[in-house]
C-alpha cells in the first residue's frame, strides 16, 4: 500500500520505519529578506538504518542559501533548487537517538505574512513531504511569519542653510515617517549641542506612537551660543511593535555669526 496522509497531515512510509521526522523553524518571525533555520530532526526507531525524504517549501518561502548543517551522517542533501530540500540515505542509528539536517530559509513573497490561521504560503506541514523512505512523519504544521517591522525614516544629517545670529534662535520642521508594517513607539528624543527639539502638534517626542504609514514632526531649533560652525545631534530611540529598540542619530550643523551691533569698533 502507498503512503497515507492522516488528518493532521502526517505520513507513514511503506515498510518498517527506522526513524520519525519532525520540523521546526529557528524563529517565529523574520523581517523581509532576513533568514532563519529550518531543522529536520530524525529520531531513531528500532534498529535504525537509512532514510530519505523530500520537503517542498511553502510557496511564500525559499532556501536562503545552499548551506547545509546538522548532525546526521552519510547520504546527501540536495539544495540546488531553492524550492526543495531533498534528503537521501541519511544514517539513523539507535546509539545516537536523534540527528538533524539544517537549512536556512527566507521569504519569497513580498509583504507581511501573519501566521493567523496558518496560511499555506508560509506554513510547512506533513503535506509538504514526499518520497518518504523508512521514515514516519510526525510533523505538526509550523508557520513562519514575515513582518515588515515599523521603522522611522530619520535622516542622517541636516545643515541649517543660513548663518544665524548668536543668541537668536531659528527652527525648521523635519517630517519623520513610519515606513514599516507595524506601529513604532518613540522612547526618547535627546538633543546635544546648540540644537533642541520643540514641542508642538504631532511632535516627535517621548511616548509618541507613530502608526504604520503616518508621521510625526521633529521641529529642530538652532540657537548658536557663539560664532563659527556649530555641530550637534538629536538621537531618537524608538521601538517597533514586535521588535527591539533602535537608536537613530540626526547629525546637525549650523553657523553662528555675531550681530554687527555686538562687534567692537576698530
- End-to-end C-alpha gap: 107 Å
Name the structural class.
mainly beta
Question: Major beta sheet, specifics?
Answer: 6 strands, mixed
Rg of Cα set:
29 Å
The succession of helices and strands, N to C, reads: EEEEEEEEEEEEEEEEEEEEEEEEE
Determine the number of helices (DSSP H or I, runs of at least 4 residues): 0
Q: Beta-strand level of the residues, as a percent range?
A: over 45%
Low-confidence stretches: 1-14
Number of self-contained structural domains: 2
User: Which CATH architecture of the largest domain?
Assistant: Sandwich
Briefly note the CATH topology name of the largest domain: Immunoglobulin-like
CATH classification class of the largest domain: Mainly Beta
Total DSSP E strands: 25
- Averaged pLDDT: 90
Helix amount: under 10%
Overall 3D shape: elongated
Characterise this structure.
The protein has 266 residues and is mostly beta strands. It has 2 domains: 4-146, Immunoglobulin-like, CATH 2.60.40; 157-262, Immunoglobulin-like. It has no helices and 25 strands. The strands form 7 sheets. Strands 3, 5, 7, 8, 11 and 14 form a 6-stranded mixed sheet that branches. It is elongated, with a radius of gyration of 29 Å. The protein starts with a strand and ends in a 9-residue tail after the last strand. Residues 1-14 have low confidence and may be disordered.
Amino acid at each position: 500500500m502507498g503512503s497515507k496522509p492522516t488528518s493532521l497531515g502526517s505520513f507513514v512510509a511503506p515498510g518498517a520505519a527506522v526513524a520519525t521526522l519532525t520540523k521546526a523553524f529557528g524563529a517565529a518571525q523574520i523581517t523581509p529578506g532576513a533568514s532563519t533555520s529550518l531543522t529536520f530532526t530524525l529520531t531513531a526507531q528500532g534498529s535504525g538504518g537509512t532514510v530519505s525524504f523530500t520537503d517542498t517549501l511553502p510557496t511564500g518561502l525559499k532556501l536562503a542559501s545552499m548551506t547545509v548543517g546538522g548532525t546526521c551522517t552519510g547520504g546527501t542533501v540536495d539544495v540546488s533548487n531553492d524550492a526543495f530540500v531533498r534528503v537521501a540515505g541519511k544514517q539513523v542509528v539507535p546509539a545516537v537517538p536523534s540527528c538533524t539536517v539544517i537549512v536556512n530559509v527566507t521569504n519569497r513573497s513580498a509583504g507581511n505574512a501573519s501566521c493567523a490561521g496558518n496560511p499555506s504560503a508560509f506554513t510547512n506541514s506533513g503535506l509538504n513531504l514526499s518520497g518518504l523512505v523508512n521514515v514516519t512523519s510526525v510533523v505538526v504544521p509550523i508557520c513562519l511569519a514575515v513582518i515588515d517591522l515599523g521603522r522611522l525614516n530619520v535622516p542622517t544629517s541636516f545643515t541649517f542653510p543660513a548663518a544665524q545670529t548668536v543668541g537668536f534662535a531659528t527652527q525648521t520642521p523635519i517630517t519623520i515617517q513610519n515606513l514599516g508594517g507595524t506601529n513604532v513607539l518613540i522612547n526618547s528624543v535627546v538633543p546635544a549641542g546648540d540644537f533642541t527639539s520643540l514641542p508642538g502638534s504631532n511632535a516627535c517626542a517621548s511616548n509618541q506612537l507613530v502608526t504604520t504609514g503616518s508621521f510625526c514632526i521633529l521641529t529642530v531649533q538652532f540657537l548658536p551660543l557663539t560664532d563659527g560652525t556649530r555641530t550637534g545631534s538629536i538621537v531618537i530611540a524608538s521601538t517597533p511593535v514586535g521588535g527591539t529598540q533602535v537608536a537613530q542619530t540626526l547629525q546637525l550643523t549650523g553657523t553662528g555669526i555675531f550681530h554687527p551691533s555686538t562687534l567692537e569698533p576698530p
